[in-house]
Amino acid sequence: METQKVVSGNTEGDVWNKIAADLKPDVFNYEVQINQGTHVVDLSIDIDLGGGFEGGFALTLFKAPVSVSSDFKFAVHDEGFIDEIGKFFGMQDVKIGYEELDRHLIVKTNDEKKLHHIFSDTETRTTLVELEDFDLGIHHHTTDAGESATLELNIDEGITDIAVLKKIYDAFYTVLSAIS
Fold first, then answer.
1. What are phi and psi of 59, to 5 degrees?
2. pTM of the full predicted structure?
3. 60, HSE (Cβ side, Cα atoms, 13 Å)
4. Cα 65 to the center of its chain, rounded Å
5. I need a labelling partner for 42 at 20 to 30 A (CA). Which of 22, 51, 155, 171 fits?
């Protein structure tokens, strides 16, 4: 993979203009750290076309650290996705009160009220419903250094279209901001 770039700007437009200048449609591996407001978001795009008998793969990942001060957990994925998100203690499939999400997505959480608030933005819900083969959730990690958590959006597609990436980023950033 290429070396991860760092992009910041005074506005979201400044940030995405810089990413658009870097990311070309024929790029197969791209990593950038996006510094916007108080958040740091890592964007990784990895496309392997395969060859011979290999089928290849593609992935677009948005990832950002979140506070581990609470035990809040959630995971969302499209209905057709065969996930390995795991059953966290106390989590269950829930309906969060937004028909478009409840109909098209599998939602697991240990705090339905908080998740309802997190997904209150209409544009965020619309963007998630339009995605295919994805999962979004908080991933908790324990290491020798202590506990940490990240919000991660994994999409099984190598997205290089700037307008599409920005729309997905906006939804991710809205969820990230609502969690913080």
1. -150, 140
2. 0.84
3. 18
4. 12
5. 51
Q: How far is CA 147 from CA 53, 88, 153, in A?
A: 41, 16, 20
3-class SS string, the chain: CCCCEEEECCCHHHHHHHHHHHCCCCCCEEEEEEEECCEEEEEEEEEECCCCCCCCEEEEEEEEEECCCCCCCEEEEECCCCCCCCCCCCCEECCCCCHHHHHHEEEEECCHHHHHHHCCCHHHHHHHHHCCCEEEEEEEEEECCEEEEEEEEEECCCCCCHHHHHHHHHHHHHHHHHHC
Determine the Cα–Cα distance for residues 150 and 141; give it in Å rounded to an integer. 8
Q: What are the residue ranges spanned by the domains of the chain?
A: 5-179
Tell me the torsion sign for CA atoms 1, 20, 136, 71: positive
Tokens of 33: 């750290």
Residue 155 in tokens? 């999409």
| pLDDT tens track, the chain, 180 positions | 456 789 987 778 888 988 988 887 677 888 999 998 888 999 999 988 776 666 778 899 999 999 866 678 888 887 654 433 443 434 446 777 888 877 778 888 888 898 899 999 999 999 998 998 899 999 888 878 888 889 999 999 999 899 999 999 999 999 999 987
